[in-house]
Amino acid sequence: MKKQLAQFLLRLARRLDPQKEFTLAEVHEPKKLGIGYHITKKDVQEYRRHNPQFKSHRKALAAMIEDTKKEIGMNILAGAYKNNLINYRVHKTLWVADVYGDLYVYAKREETDTAES
């Protein structure tokens, strides 16, 4: 429907001003990039063994989630993490947690310029 409306408006604009050339703008589609990690009870126990300052499972899991968020940000794009462009989701149960990071990227086709010669 949007495409038909855009084409109608384009035809109308061409009728109103025939000397000027009108074209439709290129539409960019969002592309989603993401990565996820599964944190198990065994992973948290190993993390607590290497970090003795965490006395409880809950605090160690919270610290591990924060570390995983940082790792997701570095793995997707370090610059996107610095600019806060990554959206995080955490699904936590009693013993395990899933941490996801999403980044929406708008991609454009590269245009080749052949009219230079």
Question: Considering DSSP H and I runs of 4 or more, what fraction of the residues is helical?
Answer: 40-55%
Strand arrangement across the biggest beta sheet: 1-3-2
Counted beta strands = 3
Structural class: alpha+beta
The low-pLDDT segments are none
Strand content: 15-25%
- Summarize the main sheet: 3 strands, antiparallel
Averaged pLDDT: 81
Task: Tell me the Rg in angstroms.
Answer: 25 Å
Summarize the structure in words.
- The chain has 117 residues and is of the alpha+beta class.
- The protein has a domain at 30-106.
- The protein contains 4 helices and 3 strands, in the order H-E-H-H-H-E-E.
- Strand 2 (87-92) and strand 3 (97-106) form a beta hairpin.
Summarize the structure.
With about 120 residues, the protein is of the alpha+beta class. The chain is built from four helices and three strands; from the N terminus they run αβαααββ.
What is this structure's SSE topology?
Blueprint: H1 2-16, E1 30-39, H2 41-50, H3 57-76, H4 78-82, E2 87-92, E3 97-106
Antiparallel strand pairs: 1-3, 2-3
Helix pairs in contact: 2-3
Characteristics of this structure?
alpha+beta; 3 strands; 117 residues; 22% strand; 4 helices
